[in-house]
């Protein structure tokens, strides 16, 4: 599951519901607290649809995955509700390709191909209704026949990478799928806008992030080995590029902020 711990670190209470259904990972909601840390996005390979509520106004945007840590524009007093999709999933009712959303924040109105669904999302009275609408839209989607074989291949690549927590070698994946590494790289990059290796790095980072966020008294050298890094220094280098923090400083921030106490499961 893709996590964004700095969302929770930027607030006093973080509401989350783990969905794991129809390509949707979770829903979340929070109001930023300016006395906390900034709301920062980190690599996760996932797309979010996020709604921004303020007084009687509601806006919606599609947030693509970032290649490294990126400060998000949030406003104190605003209430944010988001739906996070599984890594590599582009909702079928969104116009474009996955690669079009890399490191982008795009108003929902600019990329929504299903205008009826958009109207329902914007007019819904409750956040739960919005989540249900998106789940039903995902379940009712019938994949187009165009490029079906290549889409199935990319789906299989994503599955292999996610199941291995980003540690599978591309040669081994190519052997398993019975395609050349060159063809796999071309097919994946064409749809996703990044290489399988870059996607693997994001998934491996997410696993490392999860271990540091929810683990207990983990030794960094052991964590590096568990997460498939060559050594601790390589893990630290990747982690700092993704968060601007070393793994140890990140873990200290999690402990000192009483991170787990912020979560309210819906």
UniProtKB/TrEMBL annotation:
One term of GO molecular function: sequence-specific DNA binding
Source species, domain of life: Bacteria
Keywords noted in UniProt: DNA-binding, Transcription, Transcription regulation
Pfam family, one: HTH_18
Domain HTH araC/xylS-type: 151-253
Name of the protein in question: Helix-turn-helix transcriptional regulator
Organism: Pseudoramibacter porci
